[in-house]
Amino acid sequence: MIEVRNLVKLRGTTRVLDDVTLKVERGQVAALVGPSGGGKSTLLRCMNGLEIFHAGEVQLDAVKLQPGEQRSASAETLRQLRRGVGMVFQQFNLFPHMTALQNVMSGPLYALNKPRAEVEPQAKALLERVGLGEKFHSRPDQLSGGQQQRVAIARALAMQPQVMLFDEPTSALDPRMAAEVLGVMTDLAKGGQTMIVVTHAMSFAQQVANIVHVMQAGRIVESGSPAQVFGAPQQAATQQFLSEATTAKNSPRP
Known about the structure:
Elements: E1 2-11, E2 14-24, E3 29-33, H1 40-47, E4 55-60, E5 63-65, H2 69-72, H3 75-84, E6 85-88, H4 100-111, H5 116-129, H6 145-157, E7 163-167, H7 175-190, E8 194-198, H8 202-208, E9 211-216, E10 219-224, H9 226-231, H10 236-250
Helix pairs in contact: 4-5, 4-6, 5-6, 6-7
């Protein structure tokens, strides 16, 4: 479905991504976990052409992106890649002047030039799917953070992507709202949606992911099933990260 081969991303002389290779099959959920600054979000942005990388390759089915091609690739190549990859960011990035329904319809209407008669019922069905059937005509400032993120998920799904990328989608939300969003993502996974998720929600990675990749300092230091990575980590970097994550989770809030 989507494959990254030997990806290198430089900022000055620093290797933000250092020879990263991973493959996600159709219908799989891959979780990217690890300490902040490890390159997880940068990797996602390279996958859909938002960041320039300097070596390696990204392939989505037959579409290949080579080093530096975000500048030189044909518009059609980038269009094909981005049509196949939906992305949900930490911040919701909704159009503030549009209703929830208009936000979800925007991609198919303006990027794919589909007729409104076709797009509107599909957009309504997606909002109902994420539990917002009563919010068609609400603007973002009338919605909670969790509701806005669910609109963002519906908007990404409206483009019918082959792969959904989630960049810490619950990091800006309180626990109740985060649970709402994770519930939607869990339902998507059960429905067979291919997903790559950068997350600090270890319970989601343990219970929903098929494979977990641990990133540190721009490299994947360990990969395996959730049972192996969380239950019997092999690498010292993984053991340290999980220990720190557990300590942070159990620390009392100020």
